[in-house]
Design brief:
The structure is a single chain. The protein is of the alpha/beta class. It folds into two domains: about 25-55 and about 300-405, Alpha-Beta Complex (Aspartate Aminotransferase, domain 1); about 65-300, Type I PLP-dependent aspartate aminotransferase-like (Major domain) (Aspartate Aminotransferase, domain 2, 3-Layer(aba) Sandwich). The chain contains 15 helices and 13 strands. The chain has a seven-stranded mixed β-sheet, with helices on both faces. The protein has a three-stranded mixed β-sheet with strand order 1-2-11. A three-stranded antiparallel β-sheet has the order 10-13-12, with helices on one face. The chain is globular, with a radius of gyration of 23 Å.
Length: about 400
């Protein structure tokens, strides 16, 4: 007679019960996430019934509440309805999707474009479709989580090179083993540092070794370039980039993402990207909003000029106060603290500081794993519709909070 032995497995929910970090932060009054906004996006927002100065939004050009963008979305809502109720692959491709893809391809000087429901899905679908197990992916050490997840899904071999280091990339490519292909994935503007990639040098290193290059320009589209086409346009190398990836949730005032490149590449991804094939299509109101936002981006360069002006005003002001803003040259301005407790204290002080006008300044507290340990920071992002008066009040808050927390 055999005795049956049963193996008792761990309750997989146990780790949920043991997780207390968020609860402790809430009790301590410095929990910085999932705050509820009670007003439309803008340079000032209402949180907890109080008006606050907003420095945590990526609405770089101030189009999220533009009446022209809203009207386009409303018209599409009445014509197409609230959702597509199917994937693009089956019955969810609308005429307005194709119109948007044609506009996007022309905008970034590529043959074709493909729209995804989110920027995250665009990177997941693109990278996992192109790279296979025998291939290599070379990624900058500071690339976005969506890129890293796409690399994991591809099952390709992966190597990271030091941030913006074209010489290190060339060395990795020279030493690449095997018979597979090579894909280099970088960003145009880095979302936590606000610096710009040296695209010409990186492109030269990659192409000299037969590698193809994806540039995730989520934070460059609309912000940089004579026509707002992004970092590569700004640096004069847009035609050399193999695939441009971008999102709609920053300068283009909506939600979603896209890729653009050679027609054969886009068609291949269209038929192999699980993130596209097995996901519902982008709702028509979002597509319509982006089409109108694209028109505004190209027709109103003064918005980019104002964005640059107001970004420089805040960045210089923070530096003059003694804050470390790293290598930022864009509307993304990190206030580097380098210690989790001190960074949290600065965030909390800014958030709670009471004046006659506003409760405080709302920023983003960024800690590992979003950034490397020792580079904890507040991430500030500016909009073209911030006024000089807004900046003056923000700097006043930072001066007081920086001294109160002994950071300056």
């Amino acid at each position: 007679m055999h005795t049956m032995h049963t193996h008792k497995v761990m309750d997989i929910f146990a780790r949920c019960a043991e997780y207390r970090a968020a609860e402790e932060a809430r009790r301590g009054g410095y929990y910085p996430y999932f705050h509820v906004l009670e007003s439309a996006p803008g340079p000032e927002v209402v949180i907890g019934g109080k008006v606050m100065l907003m420095l945590a939004s990526n609405d770089y050009l101030g189009l999220a509440h533009d009446p022209r963008v809203q009207a386009a979305a409303a018209h599409a809502l009445h014509h197409y309805g609230t959702g597509c109720c199917s994937s693009r692959f089956l019955a969810g491709t609308l005429r307005i999707h194709e119109k948007l893809e044609t506009r996007l391809a022309a905008f970034v000087h590529k043959e074709a474009a493909l729209v995804f429901s989110t920027g995250m899905q665009a990177n997941l679908g693109l990278i996992s479709a192109l790279a296979h197990r025998q291939d290599w992916i070379f990624a900058d050490k500071l690339v976005h989580a969506s890129i890293l997840d796409g690399c994991c899904l591809s099952h390709a071999r992966m190597a990271r090179f030091p941030h913006n280091d074209a010489a290190s990339l060339a060395t990795l490519l020279e030493n690449m083993g095997g018979d597979g292909g090579a894909l280099v994935v970088i960003e145009g503007v880095y979302s936590m540092d606000g610096d710009i990639a040296p695209l010409p040098a990186l492109l030269a290193a990659a192409h000299a070794h037969g590698a193809r290059v994806i540039v995730d320009d989520a934070h460059g589209i609309g912000v940089l370039g004579a026509n707002g086409a992004g970092t590569a346009e700004e640096l004069g190398c847009l035609d050399e980039v193999d695939v441009v990836m971008g999102t709609f949730s920053k300068s283009l005032a909506a939600s979603g993402g896209f890729i653009a490149g050679a027609s054969k590449v886009i068609d291949y991804v269209r038929h192999h990207a699980r993130a596209l094939i097995f996901s519902a299509a982008l709702p028509a109101p979002m597509a319509a909003a982006v089409i109108t936002a694209l028109e505004i981006v190209q027709q109103e360069p003064a918005r980019r000029a104002r964005l640059r002006q107001v970004s420089d005003l805040l960045r210089t002001g923070l530096q003059d106060l003694g804050f470390d803003v790293g290598a930022s040259v864009t509307p993304i301005i990190p206030v580097l603290v380098g210690n989790m407790e001190r960074a949290a204290a600065l965030w909390r002080t800014l958030y709670l500081w009471r004046t006659l006008y506003a409760r405080g300044v709302f920023t983003s507290l960024v800690i590992p794993p979003a950034v490397p340990p020792g580079s904890e920071r507040l991430r500030l992002s500016i909009s073209a519709i911030h006024t000089d008066e807004h900046i003056a009040r923000i700097l006043e808050h930072f001066a007081k909070a920086g001294r109160a927390t002994h950071i300056i």
